[in-house]
Design brief:
Elements: E1 12-16, E2 23-28, E3 34-38, H1 44-59, H2 63-71, H3 74-86, H4 93-110, H5 120-131, E4 135-139, E5 142-146, H6 151-170, H7 186-191, E6 196-197, H8 200-205, E7 216-217
Antiparallel strand pairs: 1-2, 2-3, 4-5, 6-7
Helix pairs in contact: 3-4, 4-6, 5-6
């Protein structure tokens, strides 16, 4: 298949291998090197759309980022983020602890996903699930689930996820942050407000300890 509006040598092809239900795509990158990928679909039209997206990314200079986001898992990126962008002096010790706490819930859901597989729908499903989750309470009988978590808790986890993915975009590991397209549940919108995260230097300037709570200035 050759895409309309492109010279043949800059187009691509959709084909199917023997003994495979999925369509494959073949195209050239900006350097003229041949790239072969599985479109991960048995529908030819979807495979053709996949190829068009790849060609558009190449023509717009985004192909390298798109391919990287397909290979890099959220767990791998979260490890890099915690080491390079979460600890002091980039963020306060309190912010770093919040990031680690949030990742305890984010990793089991998104950990094995490649960055490109994290969609707005997947994030919305995560929020909906968390809002139905029970609060983890440590008792003499062990860890128990009681009631439901506060919407603010789910919102904070979302903010941290969004920040991690924003850094991925800035580092050219991800083409776009899916969190920007997320629709919040009404319960989250009504019960949360966006906090100001203080840096370590900002915290050092705050004289009154009553103004600081876990690295967040309310």
């Amino acid at each position: 298949m050759t895409n309309r509006g492109r010279p043949p040598k800059f187009g691509g092809a959709v084909y199917r291998r023997k003994n495979s239900e999925f369509w494959q795509v073949r195209y050239k990158d900006q350097k003229g090197e041949v790239i072969r990928e599985s479109a991960s679909t048995s529908d030819r039209q979807e495979a053709e759309r996949f190829l068009r997206d790849r060609l558009d990314a190449r023509d717009e200079g985004r192909l390298a980022t798109v391919l990287t986001s397909k290979q890099l898992t959220f767990n791998q990126w979260a490890d890099w983020f915690l080491e390079r962008r979460s600890k002091p002096p980039f963020r306060s010790a309190g912010n770093h602890q919040q990031n680690m706490n949030a990742l305890k819930f984010l990793r089991p859901v998104f950990g094995e996903f490649s960055l490109s597989q994290i969609t707005a729908e997947a994030v919305e499903n995560y929020l909906a699930h968390r809002l139905e989750s029970g609060r983890r309470i440590h008792t003499k009988l062990g860890l128990q689930l009681r009631g439901r978590i506060k919407p603010a808790t789910a919102h904070q986890e979302f903010r941290i996820l969004s920040h991690i993915l924003t850094v991925a975009v800035k580092q050219k590991r991800l083409a776009a942050n899916p969190c920007l397209s997320v629709e919040f549940p009404v319960s989250v919108k009504k019960s949360t407000r966006k906090p100001h995260y203080m840096t370590a230097s900002e915290q050092a300037k705050v004289r009154s300890p009553h103004q600081v709570t876990s690295g967040i200035l309310s």
